[in-house]
TrEMBL record:
Residues 89-165 form the Lipoyl-binding domain. It comes from the Bacteria. It holds the Pfam family Biotin_lipoyl. InterPro entries: AcCoA_biotinCC, Biotin_BS, Biotin_Carboxyl_Carrier/Decarb, Biotin_lipoyl, Single_hybrid_motif. This protein is a component of the acetyl coenzyme A carboxylase complex; first, biotin carboxylase catalyzes the carboxylation of the carrier protein and then the transcarboxylase transfers the carboxyl group to form malonyl-CoA. One of its GO terms (cellular component) is acetyl-CoA carboxylase complex. The keyword Lipid metabolism applies. Pathway: Lipid metabolism; fatty acid biosynthesis. GO terms for biological process: fatty acid biosynthetic process. GO terms for molecular function: acetyl-CoA carboxylase activity. Keywords: Biotin, Fatty acid biosynthesis, Fatty acid metabolism, Lipid biosynthesis, Lipid metabolism. This is Biotin carboxyl carrier protein of acetyl-CoA carboxylase.
Amino acid sequence: MENMTKQNDADVAFIQALAELLNSNDLTEVEVKREYGENDRLNVRVSKAQEIVHTAPAAYAAPVAAAPVAAPAQAAPADAAPADPRQDPNCVPSPMVGTAYLSAEPGAAAFVKIGDSVEEGQTVLIIEAMKTMNHIPSPKSGTIKRILVDDGTPVEFGAPLMIIE
């Protein structure tokens, strides 16, 4: 039993390493098949879906007539963007599951706010995953048009975080 636990821990570490490899090399999918013995194997596929269906929490899957999740002061006019932020080409999706934080620490100023100009690579928020603070960079230079998450909000992989035009 102890050997099985060590193997399972090693498998978890291996899968985490694959996920890091995926993110650090801008890959969309990695698949590995390992055989340990006749009836003992591990098949893993880690992928980044471009369009997430039915995986976002209900708070993010707002119906067409509903307002976005962001606070009213942060919402853009309804006719300025598609009803589903995930369909907006300027949407910044969450690269991982975790908790989104808009500032470096409680009480500190937010990394960005509506109307701010950002440069490609500039930190726009943090996602905490497994006690690790992951700085999320802006994928492009532009202006923050909408912030779609509240500070401390849990997010799923692919959930819309903000709109940068």
